[in-house]
Amino acid sequence: MISVEHLTKRYGDFTAVDDLTFEINEGHVYGFLGPNGAGKSTTMNIMTGCLSATEGHVRIDGYDIFEEPNKAKKLIGYLPEQPPLYLNETPLEYLRFVGEAKGLRGAELKKQIEQVIHQTRIEDVKNRRISSLSKGYRQRVGIAQALLGNPKVIILDEPTVGLDPIQIIEIRDLVKELGQTHTVIFSSHILSEVQAICDQVLIIAKGKLIAFDKPENLEKRLLAPNEIIITSDATAEETKEILAGIDHIIDTNMEEKDTKIIEVHIRTDHDNIYEISRAIFFAFAAKGKALLEMSLKKANLEDIFIELTEKSDDTEILENGTVMETTKSEVSDV
Amino acid sequence: MIAVLKHELRTYFHSITTYVFGAFLLAFVGIGSMLYNLEAAVSNFEYVLSFGSFAFVVIVPILTMRVIAEEKKQRTDQLLYSLPITTTEVIIGKYLSLLIAYLIPLCIICIYPLIFSRFGDVYLLTSYGSILGFFIMGAALIAIGIFISSLTENQGFAAGIGIAVILLNYYSVRLSEYVSSTAYGSLIAICIIIIALGFVINHLIKSSNLAYGICFILIAATMITYYIDMTKFEGLLPKIMTKLSLFERFNVIVNGVFDMTAIVYYLTIIVFFLFLSVQSLEKRRYN
Predict the structure, then answer these.
(1) What integer is the mean pLDDT of B25-39?
(2) Residue B120 and residue B188 share a domain
(3) What share of chain A in percent tops pLDDT 90?
(4) Which of B4, B10, B83 comes nearest A102 by C-beta?
(5) Quick one: B71 and B89 in the same domain?
(6) Which residue in A13, A192, A261, B186 is deepest, having the highest Cβ count within 10 Å?
(7) Membrane topology per the record (chain B) (predicted)?
(8) Residue by residue, what is the 3-state secondary structure of A192-208?
(9) What's the confidence (pLDDT) of residue B143?
């Protein structure tokens, strides 16, 4: 559907987007995730033809956005970060202009306007001036504009920024709904949002793509090298001795809580975490030491995000669906 | 293009500036015809237009200041870029809608000579020839106004620069009598113009090397020409100022000569500045 190849955008010495390559398939909701200034908006602006690229190609359904912009743009509906609204018009007038510019005429135009007004639930305000609408409604008018012309791809740049919690939920539901009929690309710096809505997540930091996978998979990857936290009444030497007899332990980190109490963070590369916790349990029991507490630590997308974006300097671009080895080991530090 | 045209027209008739523009133009021409045709009982309507042309100094910037600056400020230019229309279509659509807004008061002005002709001998041919010239000159000034508006996102700034440029153009013939006509004076003036041009190029394409390069080459070429043949520079500055004046050419038409070169000149100005506006808008894509 959309293929981005070696996309680079430089502003003088500053590289906003750095050799970005990825492929987007039809009929999913994609989340563009990254800290502020990571190059999300720049990438989206290039993909929609609003900005030129220094190098690289963007093809929408085979049409190059730079060479056949009009054909490519017809396939895209775009809502920039700040909704581009003419404030002294009504949503109806505004949508009529956008529809006409997208080549809709007469009955078809009317039908589509009605449809998008219904879809984005702005019937109540369609004859009020946009300047008097709340931010949530303005965002909806912006989305309605993107939907006109029934484009295959809808690109929304941080559509929930600056909205109140109820409005955020409403917009998220709308995005989910759109995901059933369109390919939706949607950017955000809020993880829970991406986790809740998207089928696929692209993490971008410093202009580079550092992960591209399903949210569950990204989390799973972190669950694999897991961490077990135990509290025991053994001394540091004794604990060391006991743990030495157990395989698949890659790292331990001890902290003496009290004179008699020790807390140990154990990391393992075993696939089945319960095997290890079981082995630890019996090893301590065999030495006559008590395990006062044992817990398993699971990482979430937040951890991956922080890990990946902070360490993006020395990671490389990932293949679709695989996390690189270096990233994996870094992630395990969590 | 049609979509942009319709949209712009709808905006104009919602906003007061279009009405102010029309009212100003009609008031100026009205005062002119009262002074010349009624008070002084002159039957030449073209003099009224010559008088009325001063109104352009104020009304053209009022009409054109918001046309692109406003889009930039409200960030609606992003919408225009993402729609399946080209920047050329956007500029032409906007330009044509401005022309229509300008034609409406002009249509009313077209009735005046007919009214006057009922009370005396009016040279209708020169009258309507002048109205045509008046229209095309206004059209050229509007193209300049669009370009100025495309340079900034501040409407007030666009209006200010617009007024300054048109005022300078209006008085350029009169000023040309006061500027130095010596070869040396012209040389300095041309160098200053080249440097100013360099700043504009630098602003437009954000490439200081290219701007300085062009500046350097042009100044070098000017210097060489100056040392080879100094006589070419004598009286050059006043000549350039006279040639560049849009109003001066209109005065030729007012004097009863329907000068085709003037029309061609205006059309060239229109095409040139619309082209620059497209480039200026396109430039934002390249930053």
Answers:
(1) 90
(2) no
(3) 29
(4) B83
(5) yes
(6) B186
(7) Multi-pass membrane protein
(8) HHHHHHCCEEEEEECCE
(9) 96
Note whether B63 and B88 are same-domain residues: yes
Packing angle between helix B45-52 and helix B124-150, nearest 10 degrees? 10
From A176's Cα to the closest Cα of chain B, the distance in A is 23
Give residues 90 to 119 of A whose Cβ lies within 8 Å of B.
93, 97-98, 100-103
Query: Do B141 and B194 fall within a single domain?
Result: no
The number of folded domains in chain B is 2
Tell whether B241 is covered by a domain.
Answer: no
**pLDDT digit string (tens) for B118-127?**
888 888 888 9
Quickly tell me which residue has 């022309």 as its tokens.
B99
Tokens read off for A88: 């002294």
Mutate to test the interface with A, among B2, B79, B97 (most CBs of A within 10 A): B79
Contact A93 B10 (CB under 8 A): yes
Residue B123 domain boundaries:
2-175+246-286
Which one of A8, A13, A41, A50 makes the best mutation probe of the B interface by having the most chain B beta carbons within 10 Å? A50
Backbone angles phi, psi at A59, to 5 degrees: -120, 130
Q: Does A270 touch chain B (CB under 8 A)?
A: no
The C-alpha of A28 sits at a distance from chain B's nearest C-alpha, in angstroms, of 22
Domains of chain A, start order: 2-214 (3.40.50.300), 227-297 (3.30.70.3100)
Closest CA relative to residue A301, chosen from A326, A331, A259: A331
| Beta strands, E only, A127-180 | 153-156
